[in-house]
Amino acid sequence: xxxxxxxxxxxxxxxxxxxxxxxxxxxxxxxxxxxxxxxxxxxxxxxxxxxxxxxxxxxxxxxxxxxxxxxxxxxxxxxxxxxxxxxxxxxxxxxxxxxxxxxxxxxxxxxxxxxxxxxxxxxxxxxxxxxxxxxxxxxxxxxxxxxxxxxxxxxxxxxxxxxxxxxxxxxxxxxxxxxxxxxxxxxxxxxxxxxxxxxxxxxxxxxxxxxxxxxxxxxxxxxxxxxxxxxxxxxxxxxxxxxxxxxxxxxxxxxxxxxxxxxxxxxxxxxxxxxxxxxxxxxxxxxxxxxxxxxxxxxxxxxxxxxxxxxxxxxxxxxxxxxxxxxxxxxxxxxxxxxxxxxxxxxxxxxxxxxxxxxxxxxxxxxxxxxxxxxxxxxxxxxxxxxxxxxxxxxxxxxxxxxxxxxxxxxxxxxxxxxxxxxxxxxxxxxxxxxxxxxxxxxxxxxxxxxxxxxxxxxxxxxxxxxxxxxxxxxxxxxxxxxxxxxxxxxxxxxxxxxxxxxxxxxxxxxxxxxxxxxxxxxxxxxxxxxxxxxxxxxxxxxxxxxxxxxxxxxxxxxxxxxxxxxxxxxxxxxxxxxxxxxxxxxxxxxxxxxxxxxxxxxxxxxxxxxxxxxxxxxxxxxxxxxxxxxxxxxxxxxxxxxxxxxxxxxxxxxxxxxxxxxxxxxxxxxxxxxxxxxxxxxxxxxxxxxxxxxxxxxxxxxxxxxxxxxxxxxxxxxxxxxxxxxxxxxxxxxxxxxxxxxxxxxxxxxxxxxxxxxxxxxxxxxxxxxxxxxxxxxxxxxxxxxxxxxxxxxxxxxxxxxxxxxxxxxxxxxxxxxxxxxxxxxxxxxxxxxxxxxxxxx
Length: 843
Fold this sequence. Notes:
Helix 3 crosses helix 8, helix 19 crosses helix 20 (550-561) and helix 21 (574-583) packs across helix 22. Helix 7 links the parallel strand 5 and strand 6. Helix content is 33%, strand content 23%. The chain is of the alpha/beta class. The longest helix has 17 residues, at 316-332. The chain is elongated, with a radius of gyration of 34 Å.
């Protein structure tokens, strides 16, 4: 970069002449950038990567940026910035301020209505940053990006190029170029009014930091209808009741608030109010507090970690204000209005004043002490409501509750304990507002209820979701399980175990935020599959207990859909369950195919006579085509569809729409990226061919589940779905565990099922048991016994239709048997009720 290129413009550093030329064309640049929507995940991923670099003192990115810190600035400010840019903090901010981690998607505000709402960017946000504020400027741009805006920011001509280079590093972490297209950082003096005018003229919101004069100077350039977002100077105070002001701990905490950052923060106390009318108590408290303040160590360090100016020593103008304020207060001592307690070297001062109105402090450990009985609090403070920020209150529990309400009514925007006035929490509103809402618009689309009944997200009909490309090595179940030990306790709020259908049950950890995101996604998938939250009456018949998640998850899904639910859970008493369905008018069943098949056949007479069942949504296994035919023809069920495709580790991965058949699902593309890789190598399969399904999830807090080999086989389904959605489609084609190596041959469980149904007329369940014999291996096909079940006929079908099986048997490498057994005799997973498709006892 050339020395005179002080401006960062959409990915490039440019000089004054080029920046001026581009400023004149700013409206066109903004329109071009806004033409392509910005995915929130793109911002989160890049910010999280930058955060990791800033938190590592040895990282080259941090080393490069440290060279642009203002003189005297503590390099730790970069680590502080890193903590603020992490996925955890930004996701929490999004949820708190805009209601979710993907607020820009047009989802149904109420799943029972075809009204879609979202937070949309205002368009162009112009940021006028304060001088000597290392973190304020870049964080303001990040807020603008989270809201999806194009951002142009002005820094002071006296500032370093830290913000420009921070934004360049952030943009470099986004290979799509979407972030670079939305960031412009200019450095010029406020006297260059023409540039300020060109910045603000096309803006939809202007954010400005500073006092009234600074805001007024910018306001003259703000066009009509443009939002002016003021982040101005504020005044904060402490309020102590009689119970509190005599306690040494309270005085010590108050002194901490005064000394931390030398009162340079807006939340620093400038006045201490006492809940009294007694002037003597005011003077006595001031004297005692002066002794506590005087015992504090002298001011050291800088204010950089909170984005404030150097607080070591006041400048000449501040020195003059300190001297004048103290002198006037001393003169008024003769009138009985004040009393001053100050350090001999002028490093601190406590000024008692019997007059209640709020008075600004000259800062640098200068504090007013005033009387203000609580009955006069609103009348005294409300005239200054535009400038009030924090009230640090000390008193009894009931006092704090009462005084908090009174202080808020007077105009205060935040209340804290004394000693915590300068502390903050992630997602805290600033000066009474949420920044992301000020940089956003709430938008809505009303759609025809019939045409859009199964459209859960309007964006899916408009464009595909583009998420960051997966990177890193492939991970299997063992690697993912090993990561559990690295998940922080704060991110492990919900524990689930898998059913154990592919081995020992696996433990999966979730934060409640992640769980909520996934349940909303599964709910949208159910709408696409034809679930009607207004009309359907649903029996939740998934298995429950033992940390197994299906029942709980779909209870949560129905809760988010607002659907009518009978939370029965799968149980052994089929008669009692069927009677509950009949008594409460259930027409929709959620559950595992194995359990639902048993229930329907065990209570076939009662349920056929009831005739009210209309829909079945199943998960965990598959209903075969023959079984689906039976459900429709014999039980009058009209819709049989997958409730979701997912895993305990990753949550919902795919969903069926009303156009989906068999194992075809849409990807939850706003949560996951899907790769289909060769069975043996880490390379994509040719288009349309079968391979391993490999998922990367982008919406998990505290753990990285990237390139997870889930154990399923599938193929991509080309073309756009007839339902209109741009979400990619894939077709499930069994699990890698369905493929058995038997007698030197690879045999597939799904092939046995297909032959049994299509050639043998079998319409029940089927299970394979492998065993080691004395002379050869033995393969036993166990089929659910029906009125027409003929084991010998099925054996002939398998041998005739499966050449590899026939060869193994004829070569005397394998014994084949077919057994007809009761459905209850088939082996199942205890926690989930899933049928164990293949039981290998040879080990």
